[in-house]
Amino acid sequence: MDKTKDAATAATLGTWQAEATAMQARLGEPGVGSREQFRERSGLEFLGGISNGELPPAPIGQLMGFFPISVEHGRAVFQGTPGIEHYNPSGSVHGGYAATLLDTAVGCAIHTTLPAGKGYTTLELKVNYIRGMTDKTGPVRAEGKVVSVGGQVAVAEGRITDANGKLYAFATTTCLIFPI
């Protein structure tokens, strides 16, 4: 049974690495899109522009070492590999790494549902930490999914897992939706 699980994990890890390599080849230099670019595109078009290299990815991704993998209506996936540079003084990855990765995934999931001329900001982020990460954890993915989007408020949930499917943290967010 362990050999089957190990083979499945290796296959997942290989897929993740291939997807990560392909995405990183498409991404441009980190930066900030203009208000006009943000205003004239739907959220899905804006995030698609980042994924195809037309628009710059957010600088926080470079700082924290994560990047988008996929975006679709109501869903966003980001990948990162926690390292020693993310450690707190007690010798494990700081909880802020998971919180930032989750905030990005759940916020972008909401963004994918917004029409041109609408933006969002996080009102609340609730993170539950299940287990700690170290520099030996390997790549992790944060997947955000929309729960509900209204005229002014949106809710999403997200999970961080590794290639084994092991859960490290999950979160819910409430975001304010506003005209840009």
CATH-level-2 architecture: Roll
Placed side by side, the strands forming the largest sheet appear as 1-2-4-5-6-3
**SSE run:** HHHHEEHEEEE
Helix content: 25-40%
| Distance linking N and C termini | 53 Å
List segments where confidence is low: pLDDT < 50 over at least 5 consecutive residues.
none
The description of the largest β-sheet is: 6 strands, antiparallel
- CATH class, anyone? Alpha Beta
Number of domains: 1
Residues in β-strands, percent: 25-35%
Q: What would CATH call the homologous superfamily?
A: Hotdog Thioesterase
CATH topology: Thiol Ester Dehydrase, Chain A
Question: What is Rg?
Answer: 16 Å
- The total beta strand count reads 6
Q: Roughly what is the average pLDDT, rounded to an integer?
A: 96
Instruction: Please tell me what the overall shape is.
Output: globular
> Counting H and I runs of at least 4 residues, what is the number of helices?
5
Structural class: alpha+beta
Polypeptide structure, described:
- There is one protein chain.
- The chain has 180 residues and is an alpha+beta fold.
- The chain has helices spanning 2-26, 35-40, 43-51, 59-64, 95-111; strands spanning 66-72, 75-80, 118-129, 140-149, 153-162, 167-179.
- It is built from five helices and six strands, in the order ααααββαββββ.
- It has a six-stranded antiparallel beta sheet with strand order 1-2-4-5-6-3.
- A hairpin with a 2-residue loop joins β1 (66-72) and β2.
- The longest helix has 25 residues, at 2-26.
- The mean pLDDT is 96.
- Keywords: Hydrolase.
- InterPro entries: ACOT13, HotDog_dom_sf, PAAI_dom, Thioestr_dom.
- It comes from Rugamonas apoptosis.
